[in-house]
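Anyone? Bumping this.
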Amino acid sequence: MGTGVAEETQPVIQETTNGVHPAISSDPTVTDTDVRPQYLWPKTRSLLQDAFSEFMGTFILVLLGDGSIAQVVLSKNTKGDWQSICWGWGLGLMFGAYTATKSGGHLNPAVTLSMCVFRGFSWRKFPIYMCAQILGAMAAALVVYGNYKSAIDQYEGYGIRTVGLNTSTAGIFATYPQPFMTRTGMFFSEFIGSSILMFLIFAVVDNAAQYLVPLCLFFVLFAVGACFGWETGFAVNLARDFGPRLVTYALGYGNGVWNAGPYYFWVPMVAPFFGCLFGGFLYDVFLYTGESPINKPFMGVTRPKEAWRNAAQKEKVSKA
Amino acid sequence: MGTGVAEETQPVIQETTNGVHPAISSDPTVTDTDVRPQYLWPKTRSLLQDAFSEFMGTFILVLLGDGSIAQVVLSKNTKGDWQSICWGWGLGLMFGAYTATKSGGHLNPAVTLSMCVFRGFSWRKFPIYMCAQILGAMAAALVVYGNYKSAIDQYEGYGIRTVGLNTSTAGIFATYPQPFMTRTGMFFSEFIGSSILMFLIFAVVDNAAQYLVPLCLFFVLFAVGACFGWETGFAVNLARDFGPRLVTYALGYGNGVWNAGPYYFWVPMVAPFFGCLFGGFLYDVFLYTGESPINKPFMGVTRPKEAWRNAAQKEKVSKA
Amino acid sequence: MGTGVAEETQPVIQETTNGVHPAISSDPTVTDTDVRPQYLWPKTRSLLQDAFSEFMGTFILVLLGDGSIAQVVLSKNTKGDWQSICWGWGLGLMFGAYTATKSGGHLNPAVTLSMCVFRGFSWRKFPIYMCAQILGAMAAALVVYGNYKSAIDQYEGYGIRTVGLNTSTAGIFATYPQPFMTRTGMFFSEFIGSSILMFLIFAVVDNAAQYLVPLCLFFVLFAVGACFGWETGFAVNLARDFGPRLVTYALGYGNGVWNAGPYYFWVPMVAPFFGCLFGGFLYDVFLYTGESPINKPFMGVTRPKEAWRNAAQKEKVSKA
Amino acid sequence: MGTGVAEETQPVIQETTNGVHPAISSDPTVTDTDVRPQYLWPKTRSLLQDAFSEFMGTFILVLLGDGSIAQVVLSKNTKGDWQSICWGWGLGLMFGAYTATKSGGHLNPAVTLSMCVFRGFSWRKFPIYMCAQILGAMAAALVVYGNYKSAIDQYEGYGIRTVGLNTSTAGIFATYPQPFMTRTGMFFSEFIGSSILMFLIFAVVDNAAQYLVPLCLFFVLFAVGACFGWETGFAVNLARDFGPRLVTYALGYGNGVWNAGPYYFWVPMVAPFFGCLFGGFLYDVFLYTGESPINKPFMGVTRPKEAWRNAAQKEKVSKA
């Protein structure tokens, strides 16, 4: 399928940490066919590539994920079951990562934050990534809603949109906890899901062959969904949950989207950040030997003079 | 399984854009064992290779896809469920791509069209590909019918063939929409499925390691089926739907195959073309940096003189 | 898992066509640690390696395959469903291929026959392979029976072993057709399953990266099971069906193992050979460009003088 | 997802047999960024790396495995079925292997024992590995319990914890046999599961491309669960079963955790060792041609003088 333009050992995930996008590289020896910044749109696109990539990647993630929930819920489990939902989100993450190759494929503000804290990802990019991710998730929720509008009308009744009833469809877009959960339990469930996500992302990026990483991401999110997905619906991602929730509010699902749970909506906004930071911390403390604040003196909390001097000297040597 | 004739880094998908098939290459230095055009059949085959490959590839696609639906429907969900159908179509696409390696593995007229528009695939080949794909799908539907004839007789009653009833088996071969769907909804559902298909094919061909592409195609069609497959049965392919529909008409399923829906049959013939074009457009606009009309001045709509001159100059340089 | 003895680009499937096993290679420059034929057992083993490999490979195939059926049947579908059975046989073939790497991983007399006919595999080895495969399947059926003996006693009643009733367990080991099938339908179903098997094996070995071949074999058998497995239980293999059937006869399941169907038992013994030959023929006729009888003058049926001369000349040139 | 720090052909599983950890290598030419033993924590960690790796790897294995059982049991099969459990344990082993790359990813005392016996793994490390594995499994069981506490309370009744009833939840953590099993049957079921595990691990490590090994491990444990997992719950691992069983005892599940079965608890402690040894033995006897006691004179039982002399001479030559 497709003409063989892909080179054989093409890197799946590009290095974008340095903030210089290859498409606007100033290296005069590059004669790559990909460099054609002389036309208006390619020039614009290369400036906005990170945002576009995260937008489209998160769009694909939520499109497939929410689409799979919609199909299972609206067909009353005849065209899929919980496992389809795990497949949907897993494939969403896999293809989102293939889509957002140029921006590193974070697709999740909490992952971006952990990359900033533990892997020296540019803090300056954090707000751009987060906005693009939320907007991508919102666009995807709109498309899923448009596609399944007739089915929702048939399921809930024409024009009726509710939250929390047996015939409600708000759960297609954003997550709602099981009724027996305590507030602490909800937070912990999202926290542990996010920790596993981040821990395994670091483990996989470190240890898997690079071109198997997107496939492994499929398995990572599948695992979170199959093992810790029931209680709160494994949002583990502010963009994936808050974006579609906003959309359902705008589409007339009422205040229930905010006060169900009760007021559960803030948990999947906050817990993933703490969870991903903890998962990344755990990985770096026990297993990571590369560049990380954990592998600096006093685990990066302070940086004594001697260390500064060492680092400066090292830099000099490598420049010479 | 098999003797190790496959070379290790053998390309999964050959370059066929230039229209010169390697097997009839005139390069005198090629001493490949694959070049033996002196015998009658190999010579004939190499001339017809594109058509044969697309025929056999689409044959495998529809054989496994329709076969999986047949098994699920006729065994009354005891030997499979919706997920088997996703597996069946996904594996059909994967093995169809392996089978049709020599022609690029399009297996879908809408994919071929998008390749012509966005990747410079030879327009001259479009009608050949489309005919081969439709014929391949028809042959596969016949084989599936032959294989499951006893089971259909037992399911519908001996010699009875119907469309749209609870005991109908026409849905094994071609797709029929859910009863609650509006015409717009049907079109949109096929449109979005095809867009996802084409967008992800481009994303995967661009970013995945080449030998993982067929495996990724499995996941692509699985995703479309698990997330957007319920409402209209994810035909997303003129050949896959129209070919088997013709076969069911010829086999005596009656006029229902055309007027069910009502007159749904044209939707999976038309929508995939628009959907695939839109999906390819979206990918090229936001993410693609290679050769594409989108990456030309004014997004390829016009081509001002200066651009022509640049291109000509570039060509000269590369020839020199 | 395991110490890193595997080399990175280790071939998954060794070349065994020439009949000289690498372990007894006489090449004096080989200083491989694998060559230690001076001790008794390694020497014996290297002489019998083909038989041992096919035995163990078919053992694994049938162990996992029959094991998965046993678990589904005896747990009354609570610990698996039809899809588990597809997984079981698919994984059996995949791990059987990994196990029988040294002999080429045929695991099926019909595959061995097709390799002899279409790929120049040594005819001399055919009876050895076939015996080893049948014995391996018999050993596996015995182990599955031993493991699930208590469960069979609880399911059928202590010491009761029957064929063809609702509470029968003979179907765990050998295949039995659906009651509505005609004799022609049974034969055709096995024939088409075997054709798909062989066609896809050739397609995969030809076009997939070599180390992905066992994974693809998983998908191949999964596809046969999910799409054409219901009517006759996709034996597609004399060894897999006849071996365990003999075992069930010996274990006291009675004459029913032979006369059920009625006298169905010979279909999965004969049809796979025809099916695999046809599948291989189809692939070679339409797609294969390597060494095959199909790619000789008059499709290998006769070999006129001119062709002999050409071949001889070619050989001379390549020797010089 | 993630910044491209992973090198392209990075080895998935490092060689750790020699007991010298790369991070504390004394080779002065190594200028790897991974070598920074001057700080306190990295230095400590590199000394304890094996223990940390096995701890975290087994933690991930049991976290995902027990988590998947918890979700299936507590949601009363609405958010998963037996297949989710196979996925959970398979993914647990796969990601456990990615996590514990630095220690070889055994995650199972019986696997460590087999590596010592058949692959020259350091006996000195056996107790360290076993302790780390058991502690990791215990930690994981605690986290699963914490996460699903509300759900267990809702399922069993607040504060009630039982073993062996229809509403019991002890089976989430440790395994309990089916009621109809004999003691011999239990032992044999665990024995055969462990044999398959070890046999396939050796087959995969030997024959699969190195970076596909963790993916194959997913399939290995999935196969054991789908084909031989029903009767005793496929513990096949002292750490996975005994660790969580201790935790459930500490959490108040009562003496039932020990005397259910009756006194089944010792079977998954003992049988895996025998099973893994037998599986490894089988592989080495019939298929392995590398360094193994089986490939020594008299299958390693004795080592006559001549063999010693040969070995010594060989060593000299390779040193010269």
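Late reply, but here is one note on the structure posted above: Chains B and D do not touch (no CB pair under 8 Å).
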